[in-house]
Structure formats: C-alpha cells, structure tokens
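pinned: reference chain
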Amino acid sequence: MRLIPLAVAGLLALTACTATREAPPTLGAQPKPSAAGTEPAAAALPPASLELWHGFSTDAEVKAFEDAIAGFNKKFPQIKVVAKKGIQDDQITSAIRSGKAPDVAASFTTDNVAQWCKSGAFQDLTPVIQQDGIDLSVLPAASRSYTEFEGKRCTMPLLADAYGLYYNKALMKGSEPPKTLSELTELTKKLTVRDADGTIKVAGFIPSFQYYENSPSHLGPMTGAKWYNEDGTSAIGSDPAWKQLLTWQKELVDWYGYANLEKFRKSLGDEWGAEHPFFKGKVAMIVDGEWRNAMIANDPKAKTLDYGTAPLPVADDKPDLYGSGFTAGTVVGVPKGAKNPQHAWELVKYLTTDTDSLVTLSNALRNVPTTKAAAESPKLANDANFKTFLDIFAHPKTSTLPANVNSVFNQDAFSTFLTSWEKGSVKDLDAGLKDVDKRINDKLKLSGG
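pinned: its structure tokens
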C-alpha cells in the first residue's frame, strides 16, 4: 500500500510528567552483554514484553507485521511483542508526552522526524548503531537523509516508496515512455483526445499540481530542484530548477486550458478505488509510487491492464538525472520513555536490517525494501514493473524531502502558491517564489531556526 504522509502540527518539546518521576532507561545507558564482539547474545537479554505501534490496518498488512515479528521471536524467544495497529503520529506524540510511550513506534510519514529528533521524543540511535557495528552505507543516501536531523539519527527506514512513471501501453500505441520533459510534452499532446468544444476525453498526462500524486516533492526531481539551503533556509526562490519545472508545467497547463483541465480533473474517479482514471484508460501516463502495482494486481477490473513503468522524465539539459526520482517511506524508532529500550532496539534493528524480515514485509506490502541485500534477495517477489522502482530507489541521484521542523507548513505554503500559479493568478514567477521563501524562512525563525 501507499505510505501516506500524515501532517501533524504543533509538536511540542516533551518533558517529564512530574519532577519526582524516576527517569526511564535510555538507549546506550547500560552496556549490553555480548557473546562475541559487539553482537549481543540472544539469551543474554532478560525476558521482556514490547509494545509496538504501527499505522498499518488491513488484514494483509497486519499479517505481514506478524510474520516479520515471528522471525524476531525465533531469534529472541524471551521477548514478547504486542503490536497495536492503525496508530497515527498524533497518538504517538500524545503517548510520549503523557509518559505512556510504546517501546517501538513506526510512522508512515517522514514529516515529523526532524521535530522528534530535535525534541528528544524519539531516542538517538547513534550509540547503539555504533555499538553493534551497523554499516549505514547499506542504505541509500536519501533514506539516511529522511531518518535523521542535525546529526541525530532517531529513526531507521523500514520500507520505502519510490516514484516513477506509469504508462498505458494500449494508449501509447507503441510509443516509448518519455525520458525528457520535451518528450513528455510531445507525447501528452499526441495522446490527448478532445471533443470539438475542447472537452478532454483522454489526457496524455495531467500536469496539474492538484492531481493525485503530482505534489512538488514528487515532481521536483524531474529538474533536480532542491527545497533547502545548507543552513536550512528555503531554496525554492533561488534554485533555478524550480523555475524550470514550473515554466514547463504552466506551458502544458495553458495548452490544455486551465478551465478545461480542471473540469476534467474534477470529473475523475477516486485515487484509491476501481474508478482510478489510469485504470479506466482516461489518462495515458501518471506519476505514482511502486504500491500502485499491487493495487492494479489486486483490483479485479484493473489486473488485466496492459501497462508499463519507467523512471520520471527529466529536464532536457539534465540527462544524468534520468533513472532517479523521489523517495520517502516508513520510519521506526524507540520513543522517549520506552520501558525496555535495549530490547526495543533489537526489534528495530531486526525489522530494518534483517534481510528476511525486509523481504517478508516487502512481499506482503509491495513497498521497496530499504537495504541492498533485501532488494537483491532471490526471495523478493519481483517483476519488470516493480524492478523499475527498486532501481529508482537505488539511483545515486534519487532525492527526498529533507527533514525539517516545519516540513508540513513548508509543503502547504508551496502547494498553495502552485495552485495560484497554474490557474494564472501569479504574474511574476520570480517574485512569487521569493515570497514563498519568505513565508518559510519567517516560520523557521519562529521555530528557533
């Protein structure tokens, strides 16, 4: 399934409930018994019960977690894991604030990682990562980026999303998927079908930022656009790659006619149901995540769809970007106040670094496994359409939305501007982008940045 970002505003610095309360144990506070080297002996940890909170809720998702936990129990039979499903970020934050945190918490979103790391809501994993000799280079740079903030790694990547291009082979009529933005424009115009009055019947590609997965974070990698400068301030107004993307996008919107495009967009079916326009042949090419493969396979009406996948088209003057894309994913860590932090770390480590565990979860959830060993495992369910996203995730130029304490606000501020931009309400693009910078930077100052 899709790993859906869930916005949670107003995360506060966490403090103990009372001045006299005994401080809970923390990671790295005590040396772990070991059998040889730095790897702890399974039998050396005393019996304990761990509470694991995660956001998955369907029967298949819950079973996937149970199967992964079963593998952990074989290694640590004395540790009982009680999983609680359907948990969202605000529930995790509230539990930590009230002193009733679970031992392990997993989140669909990367938007709150910066605040969790900065406030200490999630414990810094660096000491135990170093203690156990874990080589983080097995993770792509992008996934390392969205699981830490200001040098503090308070989460680990569990599974990932990667974004690429889906195309309807029947509608393409033998055309190859576009590799550049100019090719995407040309093919969009070729495949679009309209009535005599301009009403769109079939769209080659929908360029609107308001369409399903067309968020600026997902499309930004097409031109290599970056969100932040090294000092954490907004780079949206100063990075020419954003202007390049928006200029291309607006030209294609104008070719359709904004009113025509909006009428068509608003007529389309539910993104998460059988009436998805890609399933129905109403849109020839879409930007989407790897999880769409599973949705197509599991939908009785869509599973016969003849489609292909490819990397995102990129700016014509930046061919080295081709093959890359956007990635983010599920993160997991040990919250402040965990009753059994050392045991909790063993579970986090197992879920995020054990190859069989990652393959088990990936095969069931159809998300990208985050380590190279898991991606190359012969046990991984794989085909050409899914492999596209494995390759995108592993590409050295694949990017993410870096952790930021105001991540949700920043994305909302930019998306609001983009809505005005594509409808033609923005007359000066440079000034508009600089104003977005100002809003983001002013918010950063208020947050102590």
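why pinned: Residues 1-21, 32-40 have pLDDT under 50 and may be disordered. The CA atoms of residues 198 and 257 lie 9 Å apart.
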